[in-house]
Amino acid sequence: MEVTSVQGVAGGVQHVLCGPSSPISSLSILSPTLWRSARAKNSHLCCVTTRVAEAPNNGSNSAPKRHSKHYLARQSAIVQVQDSSDLLSALTRLGGSLTVQDLNAIIRHLGTKKRWHDLSQLFEWMLQNEKVSASSYSSYIKFMGKSLNPVKALEIYNNIQDESTKKNVHICNSVLGSLIRSGKFDVSFKLFDQMKQNGLTPDAVTYSTLLAGCSKLKNGYNKALEFVQELQRNELQMDSVIYGTLLAVCASNNKLEEAEGYFKKMKDEGHSPNVYHYSSLLNAYSMRGNYKEADALVQDMKSAGLVPNKVILTTLLKVYVRGGLFEKSRELLGELEALGYAEEEMPYCLLMDALAKAGRIHEAKLVFHEMKEKSVRSDGYSYSIMISAFCRGGLVEDAKQLAKDFEGTHDRYDLVMLNTMICAYCRAGDMDSVMEMMRKMDELKITPDYNTFHILIKYFCKEKLYLLAYQTMEDMHKKGHQPDEELCSSLMFLLGKIRAYSEAYSVYNMLRYSKRTMCKALHEKILHVLVAGQLLRDAYVVVKDNAGLISKPAIKKFATAFMKLGNINLINDVLKAVDASGCKIDQGLFQMAISRYVSLPERKDMLFQMLQWMPGQGYVADSATRNLILKNSHLFGRQQIAEILSKQHMISKASKSREKEKRV
């Protein structure tokens, strides 16, 4: 198993709000967007504090401000609505006395408490009673993003009628943030383009939000570069948040040199790097195991007065294991333990995974047992690493036993763990345990991914359960996963062997209509399967669409089978397709076609069309073919047959004469 990068750990490092020396102590770290939000709040609080401090002092201790009855009534109404178990009833009674600002405060309260249903009821009421502002939309959409309900957020945004409200930058940022948080990156990028067309003027927060999405995209660096160039064209300044997000994008896309460039540029522009920036660059070093540069970076960080925290040290451990420095990794793991930073399994997992992939399974096993003896909290990733390592090393029984141990000690499963256990049981040939894991997946409502299907299909093929493998691939296709070409090719052949011809053709079509580029040999491979199963109409489609990719012997074999048993209405079309492929049609094929028409005289028009088509393509009926036609001419009309054959002979004679003249 590939241990997930500490990007997930380092990628969310808590941003320092009040200067480079602020402490950061947790792996529950803020994203750049949240940092910006927190920074804004912090700035707002500072402003409030300043205003209070600068208030005139009249030289006497003034009494606390007395609020009006109206104000106190409103505050009471806010609390009653917030605490009500029947929100709509409370709004009916008290909503008329509340201002938009009051209702916005209730939105924030309900959102903070994650009372999503009440929050939606409140916002719908506000819309119906026309008590909404830009802040209402922005806050509600932001909370819909936090509840991972981007569809609702997008629906609310699309239903905004007022143009100025719809292009409000805070509302747009909330919508984009909601989509990014939910992993709808492509949708967010397209919507951003649409927003600009509708008059949005993006700000730095907009670009920071979009860049955060790029860090989670495969090959997201190029997209991030587009946003940076656009930001610069709009004369917006790159701040430390944007630089931090860019460093995370570079790290996740293995762009080390670019990350170093942005880090230097940020410092040159006067921005002081904080722990988030250092951890992101460190993570970039970890991708290649650049331990010398990593050590120098940590030393630079210490010189700047920053203390390496759990994230930094864990990422440094990742650098060491990627660089193959196992002894140094053990020393750093000991340091993490001494600081209380190894209470969870991640540091151990990094070392175990690297040892296992280096073929040092026994050492990885010792680290695993050490972790268990120290009662380190585990979510199952350590088990997943060791089960995968045992499987790779051919220690199938050990993998199976460890999977059983996990089942006995853990009641929590995720997709990665279930896939690992399914793989172990498949390797061991334990069908009952495989089926039990699939039932557990259903019970826990965990959706299988590409890896799940791939593991199962390979296993069912190994056990010669080819139809079950086909059903699994069909389910995989319906779930939107593109099948692997090699696996499809193998399954097509195996289904053909058990005479499941239509299923084999279905697998071919799954691959054909996917976005993958197909191997040329697959077209001929399925053609042989279809001809063997006498699915000649489907075989004709394959030849017609891919004639240039199929060998002439295979096409001739197909044509012969079709002339014998194919749909008589398609015989002429097949002959044309064969000729178009560059494969010369011999008299034997024509005689077979004529024999089919003789057996069904009412198709004489098709015979006439074939005979009229032949000379134009350089074909003429030889004596044996002419005799066959004349022998049965009473079935088609002697005079008409004689005229067609005579015309064919004249065309052929003229053609030969022209060729002779050319040679002379």
Automatic annotation (TrEMBL):
Presence of the UniProt keyword Repeat in the record: yes
Family matches, as Gene3D superfamilies: Tetratricopeptide repeat domain
PPR repeats: 168-202, 203-238, 239-273, 274-308, 344-378, 379-409, 414-448, 449-483
Keyword terms: Repeat
Family note: Belongs to the PPR family. P subfamily.
NCBIfam families documented for this protein: PPR
Name assigned to this protein: Pentatricopeptide repeat-containing protein
Native source species: Pyrus ussuriensis x Pyrus communis
